[in-house]
Amino acid sequence: MNMISTNSNYQQFGGKSSAVLFFILMFTILIGSQSLKAEELERIHVEPDNFPAEIDALNLAIEEHGGDVVYVLENGATYFIEASLAFDHPLRFEAEEVPSDNPPIIRAATDLEGSSNRIGMYEDDLHARGIFFYGIDDLGGKETNQRTTGEDIRLVYEHCYLMGGSNYFWWLGAEGTTLIIEDTQLANAGRHTSAGNQRFVDLRGNDTDSVIVRNSSIYNLSSHLLRLGGAIVDHIYFDHVTVTNFYNVFGGGINLKLSPDITIKNSLFQNVRFDGAWESKDLVGDDGYEYDGERYVSQSGMFWTQTWEDFEDADDPDQPTDEDRSIVIKNNNFGGLPDEEVLAVWDDINDEENYVTDPQWLWDNPDIDPEHPAWGARDTIEVVRTNLPAKDSLLVAWQEAEKPWVDIRNNIYENVDFEDPPSSFGESVRAWWFETSPPRHYDRWDDIADNSGQRFYHPAPGTPVDSENTAAWFRNLAYNTDSPSYTHAENNFPVGNLNFFPEMRQRWEEGDYPTSADEPEKVAKDFELVGNYPNPFNPTTNIVFELGETADVQMQVYNVIGQQVAAMELGRKSQGRHEVTFDASDLSSGVYLVRMHANEQVQTIQMTLVK
Fold this sequence. Notes:
- The chain is of the alpha/beta class.
- The chain is built from ten helices and 34 strands.
- It has a 17-stranded parallel sheet that branches.
- β30 (about 550-560) and β31 form a beta hairpin.
- The protein is globular, with a radius of gyration of 26 Å.
- It starts with 18 loop residues before the first helix and ends with a strand.
C-alpha cells in the first residue's frame, strides 16, 4: 500500500508547505521503512538461468514463493524474462553485493519466433536494489523496459542501472504512482526512427503522486524527460541529477504543466535540446545569432509550464490557482557542449555551412541512405545559431512579475568537459539525421548481422552485458574541479550526480559540508562562519562568525564564476561572536560566496544580493 496519499488533480493542494521538509520526511519514511521491512523478510537466493537451455528462473521463483520475500540475485548473472514480471503482490529484488560494477542483469528473452515481452508490467509495488534492467532482448531487439498497470503503487530503484528500451524507461500506466530513483544510471532509451517517443518517464495522461530523482544520471535520449500527456504530478523533485545528450528537434525538457510542487535543484543539464540551438533564419531573421562569447546554450524551452487561469471555473470554490503552487528551480547548470565539439558534429552532418536537413523531410523519410540520390535532393533549411534560455515564456513572465510561487535563482550556463563522456553522442545525432539502421549505441551490434545463423545474441567483451565490469559501461561524467559547477550546488557541492565525486558524495550523505573545492577537509569546531542577515539583502548585510580562540581574520567575496569582488582584512579578533557589515552597493544582483580565514581555518557561505 502506498504510504503517501495521492493529491491528484489538486484535491488537497497543501499550500506552500516546505518541499525540503516534505522530501526529507518522504525519503526517511519510504526508503527507511521499506529497508527495515526488507530486513525482516525471508531472503530467497535465485539461481541464474542455464541459458539458453533453461530460462525464466526469476518468474518461476516468484510463482513459488510469492511477494513477502526478498529475491537475491547473483552479481554478474543474467536472468532472462520469458513472460513479463506481472504479479498482484509486491516484488523486491536485491543484488548480493550493492553497489557493484558487475550487477545482476534482468532482460527480456525471445521465443522461437523471435518475439519477446516487456521486462515489467507491475501491478503492485517494486523495490529494486543493485539491479541492471536491460531493455534489449537476446536477439538484440529493443523492448519496453519498465511499465506499470496497477494504481497507487510505489516503485523504488536504488543503485540500479537501466539500459535501452523501445520508447521509454518508465510508462506509468495507472494513476497514483510514486516513482523514486536514487543512485541510479540510465542510458539509451528509444529508436532513432521514432525519436519523439524516447522518454525518461511517460505518464500517458495518468495523474501521478511523485517523481523523485536523486543523485542519478540520464543520458542519450531524444524526447521528453517527463511526458505528462495532460496528467498532473503532485510532486516533481530532481536533486543532484546529471542529464546530458538530449537532442531531438521535436521534444525535450521537463514538462511541468499544472503540477503544484516542483523542485529542480543542484543538477547538471548539459547539451539539452542540441538541435534546438539552431533556428530557421526565415523565422528569426539576421538578428537570431546571439552568441555572447561565453557559451552556446543548447536547449530551448526546457521547462514547459501551464497556468491555471486557462482552466479556472469561477463557480467552483475548490478550483486550484497558480498562487497555490511552489516552483523552485535553483543552483543548476543549464550549459551546452563546448563549441568545437558541437560544431564538429554539425560539420559531419551538413553538406553546406549553415544549412541543415529539414526535420519534416527526415521524419517523412526515416530510412533514406545518404548514398541514395534522394539524399542529395533533400529539403534543407538555412539556420542561425541561437542562445535560448532554459525557462519557457510563462516561467519568465512569472519571474519578471515576482510571483511568490516561483523561485528561480542561482542557475548558471557553463559548458563542462566530462572526464569520460558517452562516446555515443556523435553517433546519436548522426543516426537521427541519416543512419539507415540502429547505431551501435542502441546496442544492435554488428555481430547480429554477421552471425545471422545464431539463435541467440551473444555480447562481445566491453559491451553493457559482458560478464565482467558490466556497470563500467556507464561513463564517468565527472568534470574538472576547477569548474564553477564544482562548487555551484547548495553548500558548495558539485552540481550533478555526486557518484562521480565519491568523497563529496559521502560528505553530502553525512551532512558534512565542504568549505571550498580546494579545502575539503573538515573545519575545526573552534571557528564557525555562522551566516549573514538579512539574506537576501540590499545593499548591506551583517556577516556573523564565532571564534573559539583569538585569531587573525580575513574575508574575501567571490561571484559564482570564481572572480574575487571584495576583500577585507578584519584584523585580530578575540574569542567570541563577531559581526562585520558588508556593503554591496557596487555589485549587481546575484549569489556570492563569502570565504573567511581564521588562523589556518577556512569556511564559506553563500549570500544573495537582490536589487
